[in-house]
Amino acid sequence: MNDSTKQNSIFKVIGASSLGTLIEWYDFYIFGSLASIIGAQLFPADAGASALINTLAIFAAGFIVRPFGALVFGRLGDLIGRKYTFLLTLVLMGGSTFLIGLIPSYSSIGYAAPILVLILRLVQGLALGGEYGGAATYVAEHAPKGKRGFFTSWIQTTATLGLFLSLGIIVLSKNIIGAEAFADWGWRIPFLLSILLVGVSIYIRLKMHESPMFTKLKTEGKISKNPLKESFSKKGNFKMVLLALFGATMGQGVIWYTGQFYAQSFIENTCKVDFNDSRYILLWAIAFATPFFVVFGAWSDKVGRKWIMLTGMLLGIIFYRPIYQMFIDQTDVSKVAVSMIKQVDAPVMTKVAIHDGQDSLVNTARKFHLTDGSSFVKLEVDTVYADPNKALGHAPTIYQDKKLSTPVFWIFVGLVFFQILLVTMVYGPIAAFLVELFPTKIRYTSMSLPYHVGNGVFGGLVPFIATLIASFAGSTPLSGLWYPIGIAALSFIIGAVYLSNKTDENVND
Known about the structure:
It is built from 21 helices and six strands. By secondary structure, the protein is of the alpha+beta class. The radius of gyration is 24 Å and the shape is globular. Keywords: Cell membrane, Membrane, Sugar transport, Transmembrane, Transmembrane helix, Transport.
């Protein structure tokens, strides 16, 4: 096979692997991107902030089970091969995502709704736990030496591109059918559409061939008889598993989910920025930053993986609080000068029955248009009790649906872009880094577990834990950031002391 044919072959491998992985990430992230809307569908109308926290907890559950998926499917991948294992994970992911789009709301089936969604999220988590390790291993085992960082970094783009795709379809669906219809039933469209994407990916993956390294091992009769035992009972290999987790993937995970998921959640739910604006900010930032996955992956082939990843963690530790403080400062409309107000729309009042229809919430919304092109809605919420002995209840005034002025919008894009740039630094080289730690016969199992514990558990819990911490009495909106900052700092110290800064010139193949 000449060089040109080899090059064509590796790009076919990357394309087939990446498409399936991108779709799995798309399926997994739709839920997080729609957390606030789904929460209103799964829980009672008077649940308030707890609906969002409970929905984020369901979202987080998918991350918690990812390590179990890594063990189950990693073992299968090392026993029967990479190709058929991540075909199975794709089917499980696609099927559960499609079914989430069919689950009735709380008003129809009560608390059975969130329970059913939780079960399907657990299936999603198990499936994704087996997908990533297979795809990364498959590409790495096709890549020539000296270019593993470059070629595996294409797989690394799929997580962010899956988020980009989910956001794009969400915004497009909402704009086509309208905000009210989208909040009522249209949120189901992105879930249901996933079945078409999965079908295309399954067709492509069926045409793929098994990894040459695994095929060679199988032909020689050298595949592992017990990948789990070899991965975790042998002292040397288990040491590498722990080092990969605490020195790399743990820190990488919190940087990933802070820079993308928590950033969007914070902008939308804490800063109360308009639904579309919050997603357009992330879409632009992702579009600008995504090429840097490949840049840093390729650079790691030349200078090593370690310091690129650790630098991304260190920059997050230093800059997260100033960045998020700027988000707050730029969206504080509570003290807008009268001279800035261009127009105030007539108030819009809505009434929602609560407490089994005995009482009601009365929402009075006034939209303010400012001279710089921005706008916001001032929402006053009163509880009207049927019992005449109870006084009218007043909730604190909420400023929401903030449309940003053009200069502030692009400042936000720049701040999120910087965070995603840090994501590309920690994530671009990490597939090659993990592959190079472990021998071929137990690679799928060995690399999947630390990746999914670090990325899925420590990283995936960022939106839930950070939001929960910020809700505690005496906390500030920035309090939640101490979780990712603390985890990244611990991982940076361990990685700086114990990781080696190697490329792929000395790999356990």
